[in-house]
Amino acid sequence: MKRGFLFICFLSFVFLAAFSTCAVSCADIVMLKNGRSLEGEIIEESGTTMTLRTKIGKVVFKRADVASEERRELPEGFFGEKAEEKPQVTVNPVPLRAEGYGEASAANFNLSVSAEVKKLNNGDAILVKYTTNLPDKTVLYLTVKALGQELITRKQKVRGQSFAIRLGPFEEKRFSPGLYTVQVSCAVSRQESDEIKKQLGNIDDIVASAELRVGSPGESEQATGKRKKQLVSELKELGKLYNQMTAEYGSQKKKFDREKWDSLSESWKADLKAIKDVDADYRKSVIVMDYAAQESMKMLIVSTLERMSILYTEKLYKKDGLAFTVPPSPDDRPADALNKVVQELFSNEKDFIEASEKVEGKG
Questions:
Q1: Average pLDDT over every residue of 312-337
Q2: DSSP 56
Q3: What is the predicted pLDDT for the residue at 247?
Q4: Which pLDDT belongs to residue 98?
Q5: What are phi and psi of 279, to 5 degrees?
Q6: Domain check: are 223 and 358 in the same one?
Q7: How many domains is the chain built from?
Q8: In terms of residue numbers, what domain contains 170?
Q9: Which of 46, 158, 180, 202 could make a disulfide contact with 212, Cβ separation 3.0–4.6 Å?
């Protein structure tokens, strides 16, 4: 009886001690997939994001980054004397050193992959590690994707149950802030050995994907917005050059002023070169372009306008009885055909420009 009474007292002591500890430090706890634990009060939620008020401010992050969460009653005085002050907002506390993990299986075979962005002195790289029980010499295909673009592709044969491979660095280029997917896949139809195909049998394709985040969503949005603004500016400048070039050519056909035309031609040449230089610097610095399709059309407009200027000059010179040699080019289309090409390209870019300016106007 005495022993039972002492045991009950002991349990009561443990309970009170735990309750006292909770009264001092308990709060909502959010564990992120990167291993970081955050403590505070969950004050806002949506289907995709969560906002946690902590002792150092508000923290906003995506639900996809959350490994687990534990809801607890917030003790009085948790935030201290400055509880009523408006906290500073920190967007998505995911470190720049992004990591991701994924796994897949089919029949008796499995494949798991982990990936990590490495910041090196001579550029960024991705370290990919996989673990599998697929037969040795099974061909795997590694792909890194972002914004719908395949940035890196690599064929790799299985060598044992675990293997690591580094992709990059890439000529001192950096990964822009954003989401990247590292995919490792095994398909029976793409195997090079009949023996491996026989060992694998009729299994479905095995595809393991790891999602990486470089920087925060805020940094990604800022970088993308900056590039969009620059791209729209370049496209509008090209539109002005095109209008000026075609209007001046129409005027010069009536009465050729060689000095004025040559001066304008040099000006257009310099402006087009300036856009090409900016584009080259951009492509040298990043591994993935934010608006690859629009960037490609922009450069096609640049090259077409350069060619049109040369062909217009040739026509005006010959009309005036002057000698002019056209530089060799793989594009042998006449100026009128190129003019139609440019008009179509500008038409394709029009929706992009208008949509971008509409969003910017709302902001």
A1: 92
A2: T
A3: 96
A4: 58
A5: -65, -40
A6: yes
A7: 3
A8: 99-215
A9: 180
DSSP label of 188: G
Phi, psi of 341 (to 5 degrees): -60, -45
Beta bridge partners of 45: 50
Residue 122: predicted pLDDT: 86
- Supply the CATH number for residue 198's domain: 2.60.40.1940
Structure tokens at 230: 């620059």
Structure tokens at 320: 């005036």
Hey, is 58 helix, strand or coil? Answer: strand
| Pair of tokens at residue 141 | 């295909």
pLDDT band with cut points at 50, 70 and 90 for residue 83? very low
pLDDT tens, position by position, 244-263:
999 999 999 999 999 999 99
Q: What percent of the chain has pLDDT over 70?
A: 83
CA distance 283 to 128: 24
Tokens describing residue 243: 């209008």
Q: Same domain for 258 and 344? A: yes
Residue 85 φ/ψ, nearest 5 degrees: -70, 145
Domain match, 249 and 357 both: yes
**CA dist list (Å): 129 to 100, 103, 114, 138, 179:** 11, 12, 5, 16, 19
Residues 249 and 116 in one domain: no
- Work out the pLDDT band at 361, boundaries 50, 70, 90: low
Token reading at 289? 């372009």
Domain shared by 82 and 184, yes or no: no
